[in-house]
Amino acid sequence: MQLHDVWFVLIAVLWIGYFFLEGFDFGVGILTKLLARDESERRVLINTIGPVWDGNEVWLLTAGGATFAAFPAWYATLFSGFYLPLLVILVCLIIRGVAFEYRAKRSDEAWKRNWEHAIFWTSLLPAFLWGVAFANIVHGVKINAAGDYAGTVLDLLNPYALLGGLVTLVLFTFHGAVFTALKTLGDIRDRSRALARTLGLLAAVLALAFLVWTQADSGDGWSLGALVVAVLALLGALAFNQAGREGWAFMLSGLTIVAAVAMLFLSLFPDVMPSTLNPAYSLTVVNASSSPYTLTVMTWVAGVMTPVVLCYQAWTYWVFRKRIGVQNIPAH
Fold it and tell me: Using CA atoms, how far apart are residues 255 and 253, in angstroms rounded to an integer?
């Protein structure tokens, strides 16, 4: 295996880690409107992800940085062609971080309500747009002979991409509902499990349609295996959620995301951005990669730093592992 193949796999792993972790905190942000009934319950939901949401975004920064360094041509085409949706995602992530920090700075109800609206919408929009973006990457876009994106924003809003956006939106919300059931106590825990059941069934229908479409369009034996794992994991998550085994349900809802994203990357390889104008114009792991020297240096750095980041983040989740409920929210 060549270093450019290794870095394709590593970038896939980074995106998988990002969607696994950020997926549930996007879901919790959406649930602040769908599940919480009052101020105390909204605070419970926000507190479940309060210690970890910003750490989850490290995976996005690392994935973007690794793509820039390992595959500069891929990075350039992706960020120029998908400029508007990626800008919307970036603005949402900025506002979302500010909303988490500023919401409790004043006791005024209108102030809190406005920041809670911001948390909801800046969780929902990225959850949808990431699916649209990755569906377009896998399906292919209009890339010309110079390696530039030759389409428009409207070209990105095709039926396959919109279905991909709905899949990530519903799947992340389901993942968030399972996480909420795992991290909370009392009535909100029970309602989270009930909502997760409904969301899981909807996610199963949408994800199956999208993954089968992907397999028929560009899949192979490896991606078919990932599809089977994703479907079985989602069904398992639903079963464990119904049985009240939230820990297993959360791990399997996460495995669903892992397998689904892995299938997308397996369907994509060896391309990194297929061209719908001419297959010869497609960006691949070979023609889009950096020099072997650059990839070698990156490999050594990643080998040293990755275990440190993983250990630190695992420690963070262990420290904040306890459940919380409305009884843990101080009265004003």
Answer: 5
The domain 3-288 is placed in CATH, from the list 1.25.40.10, 1.20.1630.10, 1.20.1050.10, 3.80.10.10, at 1.20.1630.10
Rg (CA), the chain: 20
Biggest alpha carbon distance in the chain?
A: 64
Q: Which long-range contacts (CB under 8 A, 24 or more apart) does 307-314 make?
A: 309/58, 309/62, 313/55, 313/58
Question: What letters, b where the CB count within 10 A reaches 16 and e where it falls short, cover 252-282?
Answer: bbbbbbbbbbbbbbbbbbebbbbbbbeeebb
Give the side-chain half-sphere CA count within 13 A for 252.
20
Is the CB of residue 32 less than 8 Å from the CB of residue 116? yes
pLDDT reported for residue 61: 87
198 in Cβ contact with 181 (< 8 Å): no
Distance CA 36, CA 48 (A): 13
Q: How is residue 174 written in tokens?
A: 């389901």
pTM given for the model:
0.93
Strand, coil or helix: 216: helix
* Dist CA 266 CA 260 (whole Å): 10
The neighbouring-strand residues paired with 141 are: 275
Q: Which amino acid is at 246?
A: E
Spatial CA neighbour of 136 closest among 77, 58, 222, 204: 77
pLDDT for residue 1? 67
Q: Where are the domains of the chain?
A: 3-288
Contacts (Cβ under 8 Å, ≥6 apart) of 8:
71, 265, 269, 270, 272, 285
* Encoded tokens for 84: 């508007």
Look at residue 248 in the predicted model and tell me its pLDDT.
94
Mean pLDDT by 10 residues, the chain (332 residues): 88 93 93 87 88 85 89 90 92 93 83 91 95 92 88 90 94 95 91 94 91 81 83 93 92 94 90 90 90 89 85 86 77 60
